[in-house]
Amino acid sequence: MTKASNPLYAAFYAAEFPAQAILRLRPDLHSKSVAILDGVTPKESVCSLNLHARKRGLALGMTRLEVEELGGIQLFSRSWPTEQSARTVLLECASQFSPRIEETYADNACGFVLDISGTERLFGPPMQIAQSLRTTIITAGFRTSICIGLNFDTTRIKAKSTRGITVIPPDEEARAIADIPVSALQLDEEHYETLALWGIRTLGELAELPEEDLVTRIGQQASLWLRLSRGTADHIFQPIEAAFELKEHIEFETHIDQIDSLLFIGSGMINNLVARANNRALCLASLTVRMSLERSLHYERVIRPALPSNDRKFLLKLLQLEIGAHPPQAAVVSLTLIAEAGQQSKVQLGLFTPQAPEPSRLDVTLARLKALVGSDRVGSPTLLDTHRRDSFTIDPFRVPDQPSPKNEITTRISLRRMRPPHPVRMQIQAEKPAVFHDGGDLYQVQVAYGPWHSSGCWWSVNHWDLEEWDVMAINNHGERVGCLLVHDHLNHLWLLDALYD
Amino acid sequence: MTDTRNRITSLSTSEEYIELHASSAFSFLGGSSQPESLVERALELEMPAIALADRNGIYGSARFHTSAKLNKIRAHIGAEIAVSSFGSRLVPPTWLPNRFPEEPPRIVLLCTSQIGYQNLCQLITRFKMRESTKAEGAATFDDLEEFSAGLICLTGGEEGPLTAALNSGGEEGARKSLDRLVSIYGRQNVFVELQRHFEREEECRNASLIEIASRLDLPLIATNGVRCATQEDRELLDIFTAIRHHTTVHDAGRLLCKNSWRHLCSAREMLSQFRDIPEAIANTRIVSERLEFTLNNLGYEFPHYPVPNGETMDSFLAKRVNEGIRKRYLHTLKRHLLERAQKQSQRELDLIAKLGFAGYFLIVWDIRRYCHQQGFLVQGRGSAANSVVCYALEITAVDPIGMELLFERFLSKSRGEWPDIDLDLPSGDDRESVIQHIYKQYGSLGAAMTANVITYRGRSAAREVGKALGFDEQQLARLSGLVGHWEWRGANDTMDKHFNQAGFDVRHPAVAKYLDLCTRMYDLPRHLGQHSGGMVICAGMLNHIVPIERASMPGRTVVQWDKEDCADLGLIKVDLLGLGMMAAIKDSLDLIPPHYNTQVDLAALPHDDQQVYDTLCKADTVGMFQVESRAQMASLPHNAPRCFYDVVVQVAIIRPGPIVGKMMHPYMRRRQGKEEVSYPHPLLEPVLKRTLGVPLFQEQLLRMAMVVASFTGSEAEELRRAVGMRRSMQRMRDLEGRLRAGMTRNGIGAVEQDNIVQGISSFAMYGFPESHAASFALIAYASAYLKVHYLAAFTCGLLNNQPMGFYTPAVLIKDAQRHGLRVHPICIQRSEGQCSIDHEIDGSQSVRIGLNYAKGLRQSSAAALIKAREDDGSFRSVDDLVRRVPELNRKELALLAQIGALNSLDEVKHRRDALWQVEEAGRPVGPLLRNSPSESDRQSRPLRQMTTDERLAADFAGVGLTCGPHPMSYHRPALHQRDFLTADELTRSDNNSFVRIAGCVIARQRPGTAKGFVFLSLEDETGIANIIITPDLFEHERIVVTRNRFLDIEGRLQIQNGVIHVKAFRILPIEISSAGVHSHDFH
């Protein structure tokens, strides 16, 4: 059918892809009405459906409520990961026939065009190629339409618009797509409306319009439309490139139970990752450490330096501290390092800027501290926006945008919190604390200020209702203390909560 | 001070403290209790007085005053006033995470006298009106100084200026702020406010305030800065805070209350808290005694009407009424009523003079006169139509003498209320002109619209509480969707039932709390809106009586009270209501003289036009006022109106009230002679004769009481109101006792008495005012008259005042065409801005659709097109149009081409040809070539002509209607072959026969009272067919019924007295046209 030098394309198109991606793994649903919902609740709407659902009267864009009113429809939420893996499967199918593949549709559909020029000797004439391709795809669990022809766009459009297999003979491109609606050109709304107003519904009708007059009315893009509708459009093939992934993986013949051995191997892996990143003028912004352990355990930690870095020693030190702080609980079977690439940090230093330690040294120090006291206990405390007493979180250290103004030196009373507070036995006189016992010590209250009431979170189980007193008391050893006593009304407890220094 | 202290010791504990700083829910999300709840709580706490101080207004003061009066508690009036000159209120320091917005501090101003109250109102009005739109606003020191007299100033709590000043400038700063207040209000009128909510920071501030007050020798005063009536209401307060700051209670943090001490505390609690500062408590009593002002003493006066020298308003009114009576009743047809009218008018005038209402009538008369001068239609509705004075003054058009209406329903001596006159005006510009005229006449501070307090209802409460509690959107949508149906369901439906039905476990604490909060939030105010037409007018300045603020609508202002508040406090409003049909009628009347060479006087329409009644009897009423709905059409053949009073009954009877009150069917049966006319007692025959023994109107209730129990008109009106409102059981029992006693005196037996009492009780709730029905019937009759005799003018009027009524313009046009009217599509050579009347060769009138119907054609472009045509004649070609009307953009040109508006141009062969040309002509061209003729080849016509369906689709897409044949007519031969009947053929078919019909769905209804039945109106080229769908069938074919524009229906034909329905058995979609016809759906 074609000379060896002529290009030849095979296009295939999987319609209702979100539904197909889910249904190929659920053969039990093949005979049922299935619809896939997309969007945020409560504005979910049907984005894809199978033939049974369409026969039941379902249409794209219907809301969940409308679908539920119909009843008997199996509803699924759209799953991007499922679609992604289904796409990978389709791509693998295609790659059995050609290494040059271009993806042509996204979102609700999945389509690829394969450059199959010169493959006839391998796979036979176009019809045979089409049938083999179809068989492969059906085996993978998909229904697609396939078209083979000399023009990239014509095969792409024809595959999308017709079912089954089509082979377009040479010079028959325009005729092959003449009955296809102009919507196949993926025009913008305005132009689509214009053509609809003109009564131009098919590519054949569009192809008949005089080019000069059309360009006068629509602009230069009309020229491309005409070429597409006449099957004469040129296309520069853009094959899919493999994704750039910074990942190193090793499986050990003998399981490793020494951290030093692990780090020795890890060091080489980090070197490789840094070198690969360097080749693209990138740094490592984070390093995910995954290990498969004996007894099927799984281990994963993420190291994220303050700034992306390609300092091998520094990264290895962080790895050492992280593993040291969180050692694997069993012998290591395999090790994977996955790096996230980041831009190299460039800091413009001023001539008169005082010398400061390198940021990487702080990272190392922090990592050491976390290894010592636990990662949730290193950082700076941040108060929470609530009336609940003693409410704060520990956030990672941050360099403030602006230096904080110098505080004037003033003398202040400090509050030393008891964590946890001590329960005390309290005696009340004249509605005020009078005497309390803390363990063996007896405190005589001399002055009491209060009560200070605080209550909140009444809508949840974490609600509180406290009464606080600031007291000066003297204990049985004659020591005077200033302290904060709390009466927890909900638990009927008196607590020594803090001491005033 | 010492004397006062001595006096206070003799008081009971509960009387020693008066709360002088309480905010209600009328602080709009700043308080969580109704003013009435605060009063009730004060009563429980035996507090003898309480002051209400809402944020920047006195929105809740009327209710507060009314409730306090009822409970014998003194209601002090005040407000929290934001003062921008003080800077910003206290917010937590930046290092403490918080979401506090910046806002000005607020002081509390309390009114000691009427002058103080007037100053407060003026102050609020001043800063509210300074804003260009509806806004909170804030006062300045200048404002405070100007309106300081008669007011006592409290310095506020944590939101006050002293707190803010202490924080930013220390004690010195606070002292300066205090000095400023003292310089404004005087030493004796400024009190340093102390609040104690058991918070450390507050106590620290209090210590400083006490020190400053002592240094400046200023009195201290204790308040609790109350935000809710009881401790439990703190929860709702937190919810409101979250709503106000557009967040959830989880994220609101420090915005929420720190504890639950913002409620109204007892004197004992306050004494205990302030036991170290007893003078702060004692001063509350002293201040309370100084607050002499109450809202009893508002000083409102309705404006005096300026009368000539030597005249009083009463004499002037009497002269105008006498003139009117002569004008109205010297007409041949009414001369026999003259004497009765004069007698009645004298009686009414005497009562008006006695009650001092002459000014009110004259002012309404003046508004009416202004409308007549401007050529606006105006007509009074409601109970005013019972008054011959209103009729004589041409405020109403219903003759109360001729119709034997009862004046007492309108005005009575005992009622102690101002009369209520509602004026219907053409909606739109005319009504707005009248409103602006009143503003102009009485000044921007002399008149304002009444407010409309928008309160939390089921759906809004469920949604906003849910949001504040952080429920996810899906849960919220589910719940509020459910709650949305509450209002029309039965009275037994409760919120917890609905929660249960939605699958929520109300025993779950979170759901239970949600439900509880929704219930408590119900009816609390949410924000202030504008009443649809109520306008308050005042002699002197209205801003002395009630604060005025900007409404959302430009050029409008509102008072801070709603219509009930205004009525309770004796403020008088005139309702200026917009009515689309009035505008349509006015336009029709304007079109009649130039196109029909005659003039129609609305006031002199013959009410015996048989052609009009024939049309009504046939239910051929599309487009007519009040009688065009599906339910009206279904009852018109049964009622078969033959005189004007029948129309009055028709207007009144098809309403939820009479239907629920089971009055409609007995009346209809008697009307058709299927049931004997009987009366509860022979004495009642004259009263109920006109309505065939079935009491329909409220006036009949009054007359019944007057006839059987010898009640006076005032007593009868009192009875009606008592029964209608069901407010006071005691009052009802008294009146029933008097009614029975009267009946016994008149010799009516016990059984008959029971029947009469039962009858009165049952229909008082649902009865309709006869006068109101008569006013509406006049408009209904006028619309019918105009439609029957001046179809072109009437259709034009209707089309130019859309949207209104029950049907879309497409249906109105098809109906008019079926009645023989020619309707022409939009044409650039002929169409005006609005729909207009053309003349056919045979002299008949036709309607030309106006450019305003071209969807997407800007008004300015249409005006430019018309001007170009008027200036230089018709357009010669597409290029000529484009050159002469540069305002038309490419889209507009394409629109005009698409709808066939360019087809009259010489070079245009068909719509697509025009589209092809405009796409070239409409392209952007530089100024050099703009005026040069195009050299493109006009012979190139590559586009095919539109098919019929394409033309229809283009018509509906571009105009929303088609002037050509009905879409169904193109398919009729094929449909006939398949045994489909037309709507017209149904009338000639046999009852109970099996029929098949197809048509375009023009209305879908599923009324709440119809137990799930669905009513469809199906239009074809011959008329409208009515389809009934059972609930089962609807459930089965829900998608088909609700989503398809054209339906194929099989069912059984039901014909009863000319009323035709098809009870559907099977419903299918049918492919007729892709045109986007629209249905008017009611759910």
Q: Could you provide a short overview of the structure?
A:
Chain A is α+β, with helices and mostly antiparallel strands and 501 residues long.
Secondary-structure map with pairings?
The complex is a heterodimer of chains A (501) and B (1083).
Chain A lengths: L8 E6 L2 H7 L10 E5 L6 E5 L1 H5 L8 H7 L3 E4 L2 H16 L5 E5 L4 E6 L4 H4 L2 H14 L5 E5 L2 H10 L3 E3 L5 H5 L11 H10 L4 H5 L3 H8 L2 H9 L16 E11 L2 H21 L2 E12 L4 E6 L8 H14 L6 E12 L15 H15 L6 E4 L8 E4 L19 E15 L2 E7 L2 E16 L7 E12 L4 E9 L4 E8 L1
Parallel strand pairs in A: 2-4, 7-8
Antiparallel strand pairs in A: 1-6, 1-7, 2-3, 5-6, 9-12, 10-11, 10-12, 13-14, 15-16, 15-20, 16-17, 17-18, 18-19, 19-20
Chain B lengths: L1 H8 L9 E4 L12 H10 L4 E7 L5 H11 L2 E9 L23 E6 L2 H17 L10 H6 L4 E4 L6 H25 L4 E6 L4 H17 L3 E4 L10 H11 L4 H4 L14 H7 L4 H13 L22 H17 L8 H18 L2 H17 L4 E3 L6 H5 L29 E5 L2 H14 L4 E9 L2 H11 L4 H11 L11 H7 L7 H13 L3 E13 L10 E3 L6 E6 H6 L4 E7 H17 L13 H8 L12 H10 L4 H10 L2 H5 L3 H8 L13 H4 L9 H12 L3 H13 L3 H17 L4 H15 L5 H20 L1 H9 L9 H10 L3 E3 L11 E4 L5 E4 L10 H14 L5 H7 L5 H9 L12 H11 L26 H11 L13 H6 L5 H5 L6 E12 L8 E7 L2 E7 L1 H6 L1 H6 L2 E11 L2 E11 L10 E3 L1
Helix pairs in contact in B: 2-3, 6-7, 8-17, 12-13, 17-18, 17-20, 22-33, 22-34, 23-33, 25-33, 29-30, 30-31, 33-34, 34-35, 38-39
Tags for this entry?
heterodimer; A: 501 residues; alpha+beta; Dna Ligase, domain 1; 3 domains; five-stranded mixed sheet; 20 strands; B: 1083 residues; 23 strands; disordered N terminus
Distance from first to last alpha carbon of chain B? 68 Å
Count of all domains of chain A: 3
Helix content of chain A: 25-40%
Count every helix of chain B, treating DSSP H or I runs of 4 or more residues as helices.
Answer: 44
Rg from alpha-carbon coordinates of chain A:
35 Å
Query: What is the subunit arrangement here?
Result: heterodimer
Largest sheet of chain B: 7 strands, mixed
Going across the major beta sheet of chain B, what is the strand order? Answer: 1-2-3-4-5-6-7
- Which protein chains make the most extensive interface, counting residues with beta carbons within 8 Å of the other chain's beta carbons? A-B, 38 and 52 residues
Number of strands of chain A: 20
Secondary-structure class of chain A: alpha+beta
Please state how the strands of the largest beta sheet of chain A are arranged side by side: 15-16-17-18-19-20
Write the CATH fold name of the largest domain in chain A.
Answer: MutS, DNA mismatch repair protein, domain I
